[in-house]
Structures are given as structure tokens and as C-alpha cells.
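STRUCTURE:
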């Protein structure tokens, strides 16, 4: 069996990454031929990828009119953080025994050093939340988290959080990790819920001027 990635999966990954990284900005127009020419993939796999992208709310397909990259709206931001705020603290409370605390201890050390060095590294945010969500064995919850995280990456790029917020977020993560490693899971779940509420508020406030 060939180890090559199927073309429709490759097309999905390439297009979704461009949407998430805002190379195809919110509310921009796409079409099959343009995507086919740019990605050097035939239109049939492109079409299959577009169906999946619409299912993940990254695009809207209007028959005989075109394809539009979905916008980053207050409703999108609120919905993404609502689902994350429901699911992630639930995972901490329900699957605490599955959380990789050894990895979190290593991550705590790296994040502390990162704070001391200067401008903080944004990838630590993803690493922290991935440790939490990876501990959940429920496929349906994982599917919901995947869809929310796709939008969350785009929200963070579009909103462009300030260095002060990134540092505050780092500090919030560090306190949550300490509680998790001390097995104070209920406290950690409450702090995680507060952290996600803060992130939602910052994203909405940062985007106010962009929507005007």
C-alpha cells in the first residue's frame, strides 16, 4: 500500500492551513480553478476538500456563485470559547487520571524560562491545551474540540493578541499546571474556565476596531 497522502486529504490540509493562517483572509472569495492552479491538484480532490472545509465552517459554498471564506465574527468567537469553556474544564474533572502530568512539569519549566527570556513563544499555548484535550478518549468530544481549535487558531491570528496578553496567558497557564501537578483538579478546572473567559473577552475587545 502506498504511503502517500490521498490527494483530497492533501488538498484539505493545504487549503485549511492557508485559511487558518489568513493567507486566504476572512470573507475572501475562492474558486475551484484558482485553487487547482495554485495547489497543482486536480479539481476533483479540490471539490472533495471544499465539502469538508464547509463542514468545518471554514468556507461557505454558494452554488453557481462561488466560495467564500467564513468571517471571524463576534458570534464565531463567542461560540468557539463557549464550547471550549464547556469541554476543557469537563475533561480536567472527568479524565484527570489520564492527563500527562510529567509532560506538564516539563512544559512548566519551559514556559517559566520563556517568560524570563523576553517575548513569549505562542506555541506553548497550543501545547498546554493539547495535553488537556488529548487526555479525553471520547471521539465525539475530540471532534468538537478539533472543530473549535481550527477556528481558535484563526481567531488568534486575526485578532493579534498583544505581548502583555500573551504574558498574562502564560502566567495563567503556569498556575493551572501547578494545580494539576498538585492534583488539585477542581481548582484547576475553575482556573481553566476563567482563563478561557479571559481569552474570549480579549479576542472580542481586540477585534472591535477591526469590525468598525
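SEQUENCE:
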Amino acid at each position: 500500500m502506498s504511503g502517500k497522502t490521498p490527494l483530497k486529504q492533501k488538498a484539505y490540509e493545504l487549503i485549511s492551513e492557508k485559511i487558518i493562517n489568513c493567507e486566504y483572509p476572512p470573507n475572501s472569495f475562492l474558486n475551484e480553478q484558482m485553487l487547482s492552479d495554485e495547489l497543482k491538484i486536480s479539481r476533483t480532490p479540490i471539490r472533495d476538500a471544499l465539502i469538508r472545509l464547509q463542514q468545518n465552517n471554514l468556507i461557505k459554498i454558494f452554488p453557481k456563485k462561488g466560495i467564500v471564506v467564513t468571517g471571524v465574527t463576534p458570534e464565531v468567537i463567542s461560540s468557539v470559547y463557549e464550547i471550549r469553556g464547556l469541554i476543557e474544564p469537563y475533561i480536567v474533572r472527568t479524565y484527570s487520571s489520564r492527563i500527562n502530568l510529567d509532560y506538564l512539569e516539563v512544559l512548566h519549566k519551559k514556559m517559566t524560562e520563556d517568560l524570563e527570556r523576553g517575548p513569549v513563544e505562542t506555541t506553548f499555548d497550543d501545547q498546554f491545551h493539547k495535553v488537556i484535550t488529548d487526555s479525553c478518549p471520547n471521539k465525539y468530544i475530540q471532534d468538537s474540540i478539533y472543530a473549535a481549535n481550527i477556528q481558535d487558531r484563526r481567531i488568534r491570528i486575526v485578532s493579534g493578541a498583544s505581548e502583555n496578553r500573551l504574558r498574562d496567558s502564560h502566567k495563567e497557564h503556569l498556575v493551572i499546571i501547578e494545580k494539576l501537578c498538585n492534583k488539585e483538579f477542581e481548582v484547576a478546572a475553575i482556573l481553566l474556565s476563567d482563563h478561557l473567559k479571559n481569552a474570549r473577552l480579549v479576542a472580542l475587545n481586540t477585534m472591535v476596531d477591526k469590525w468598525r
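REMARK: The longest strand covers residues 59-62.
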